[in-house]
Amino acid sequence: MPKCEVTPNSPNVNKCVGAKPPAVELHIPIKNLSSRNLQTTNTPSGNIHFREQKGYFQRLRTMMNSLLIVLFFALPFISIDGRQAILLDVSQQQFFFFGITLWPQDFTLLAWIFIAAAFSLFFITVFWGRVWCGYLCPQTAWTFMYVWIETRIEGSSNKRKQLDKAPWSASKIAKRTTKHLLWGLTALLTGCAFISYFIPARELYVDIFTSNASFWVTCWVWFFAVCTYLNAGWMREQMCIHCCPYSRFQAVMFDANTKTVTYDAQRGESRGPRKRKQQTSLNEPTLGDCVDCNLCVEVCPTGIDIRNGLQYECINCGACVDACNETMLKFDYKQNLIGYMSENDIKGVRYTYWRSPRFLGYGIAVIIMLIVIGLDLHGRSEIQLNVIRDRQSLYRETADNKIENTYQLKIRNKTQETKQYQLAVDSEMPFSLIANPIITLAAGEQLDYPVTVLADRDNLASGRKIIQFSVTDIKQPDQQVSQKTGFFSP
Ligand code: SF4
Ligand code: SF4
């Protein structure tokens, strides 16, 4: 008599030793893949202690996550011309970015950059699904860093599960205390790193660790430290599953050519255990390539079984791909039973991205945004000029038969060096300026400059005339701004 059992991890599949397994219902019939319906899977309650996995995609992910973390901490320490290269100085309302100074008026440029980044993300998603989540999202990077610390102190996933259940002892208290202290220190450093994009980094770290920082700076650092600790230490995958909006709308960017982590159900089913090196086609013709080792579930940071189909909890980290490839290697089966595959890859359909409307749409949008950013940067002036007319009176008549109009000029030097400017007024009529035309402004300085423009009454027709103020950098005449305004006479 054949002996059969039902595994808890794959309740739909009978494991039968000594008998051909009965036909089973595929978890994702291929016909359903075309719709790419998203399925949800209940995640285990409490912390998920997933296994550490090694392999190609895990090396790639670790490398990219590490690069992100190193850049995040190191960038505020890079200086250009004695100034922090990236600094959002809220009090001065200036944003320094590698030698460029952006003012609130320039924030359209930042808006373009954000829009371009969003379209780039959509564009990449069309090709590689949620690859951003697995490889570059800070939530993933910090979560894996926290889990790495946890693993070094508490041991493998099985040991961590046992420790969770074990009664409190001196050893458990020591391990938990060490872990939380290290998590706390990492969180505090992360809080400092985040605030160092707003406050000069070198002083900030010293001030925080010597308790010399101001009350509000300390509050903000601790606020971000607590957020990091809760996020990466406790919330982890819950943030991806319940809070991240990207996971909810990613499906609209997918099409049949999107390569995302997918289980090849056609090849894998019927799943079932077997001896190593057993050739399914010879000994168990009805068995698929999935040996039901459950490793793909054990390594998953969001606790899902990718064999149940595409799920919004999947962050495309590739851990299950590496785990399954390891198993396939042991059984001498073909790689990529789970892999970065598209629906068309599985069906064996040849395809080209160029014809995809999403590829074209997002690609064109990215190119347009890059052109807009280029034009914005090219047209950016290093001088800012605002002309405001005197609101008290339209004009004044002087004793020597002249008409004068008064204006308030707001001139800003948007560079990081002292500049000398030439002020001029242009018009078809002969006007003269009653103000010093040479203006010196320190780096970032804004000057409120009152000027009076004078004209002979005999030369003026009545009504409003157009005049133009211009401010020119004396050393760089190509840096010039001008603004038109009205000149009134009786
Ligand atoms: S790792 Fe591969 S072989 Fe093992 S259960 Fe998952 S899909 Fe099946
Ligand atoms: S299913 Fe695979 S790729 Fe998706 S989150 Fe889990 S381990 Fe990562």
TrEMBL record:
SUPFAM superfamilies: 4Fe-4S ferredoxins. Keywords: 4Fe-4S, Electron transport, Iron, Iron-sulfur, Membrane, Metal-binding, Transmembrane, Transmembrane helix, Transport. This is Cytochrome c oxidase accessory protein CcoG. The chain crosses the membrane at residues 67-87, 107-128, 181-201, 213-232, 359-379. It comes from Shewanella morhuae. Residues 278-309, 313-334 form the 4Fe-4S ferredoxin-type domain. The keyword Transport applies. NCBIfam families: ccoG_rdxA_fixG (TIGR02745).
